[in-house]
Amino acid sequence: MGKNKVLDFTKIILSILVILLHTLPVNNYTFWIGDGICRLAVPFFFFLSGYYSFNFFKENKTGKELIAFLSPYIVAFFVWMIAYAYYSYNKIFMLISFDNVFIYLGKIFYIFLYKEGYFHLWYVLATIYGFICLYVLRRISFSDRLIIVISVVCYVLGLISTTYSIFFQEYHEFVTAIRYIGYPITFAFPLLSIGYVMHRYESEILFRLRKVMNLYIMIFLYCFEFVFVWVYCSGSKYFDMYLMHLILIPLLFMKLKDCSQIQIDKIPSKYISCSGEIYFLHPLIISLVAFMGIKSLTVGVLLIIIITYLLSLIVHPYLYRLYRIFR
Known about the structure:
By secondary structure, this protein is mostly helical. Helices cover 73% and strands 0% of the residues.
């Protein structure tokens, strides 16, 4: 598939939304940004990764080929875990008990090599394990329809254990168990699978979606959902997942994929190809700006965005040779 500058430009905007998500305080005036618009970014990236993985998953691959396919993500994770080692130090030695060495090692693996990593690096881990899930289902010859059914079930379970957990408090143990399974299974895997299947049956799915669903109606329903969540689910601290993501993300993608903007097409590729670096670098810049003690929130956020973008332009040519991510 050829280069689509509209999608590249969109990924830059989505990376900036992630910065806003991590810097803007969420209250009655800003929730529509932090718990609304910004929450489109990560599921969109998951979907994109699944969509562009089609050529790998359309045929049965060996385990070695899977490792080669995942190697850019694995390299990216360890490179940035080393970069953020100073920040993750306290989590290793303060948040984990030394009472039992095996439990200690198990918790280290769970936290650092499955569920979280450091802060935003959970995304990379979730992508790796989500792809592994999709690979296993493809290897045991599950039909694409069954994969989608399993994906939707996993996603709904993720919704129950996170965003809408306040409505399932009487099932606390069940909700907690699903939450421990984590985003690799309940968030990344479903959207990666939907992206993959969307690519495989693109024309047929697109025809059906456009026939029964309107993008603007889905945007309205999404707005209704995150307002509802803010009003009725404020007791929950997990707002990454929304039901409308399952429909809205594919519709937005297809709209953008078919969109051609002359103004954007004129932008040199090097200025809109660094969305991954923006994502990986921004916590470092947030720490730097916080250390500077800037009192104005607006100035601080703008400074973080500008510095992160400029630094990403500088490092992108070097890191891009090391791994390819956020494709």
